[in-house]
Amino acid sequence: MEWVKVIGLITVICFLGAIVQLLRFRKELNNSDKDQELTDELVKKWNKRLNWVIFFGVSGLIFSVISFIFRLLYILNERL
Question: Are 40 and 22 in contact (CB under 8 A)?
């Protein structure tokens, strides 16, 4: 059961990381000038931010599925 708690904690950390990165991207987007041209440097920077959001979000999803499977196995093991 300890593994389920550890993986659940990792899941929460990943989802919080995704939210923080998304808020940072939103703040940066709001601070940019509306008429500003998108330079290659700016595109790379925003793309990198969005990649971190995707990474943390997908990691959180994977760890939540693993945690769910471990919980099911734990419950099934108790009933047998």
Answer: no
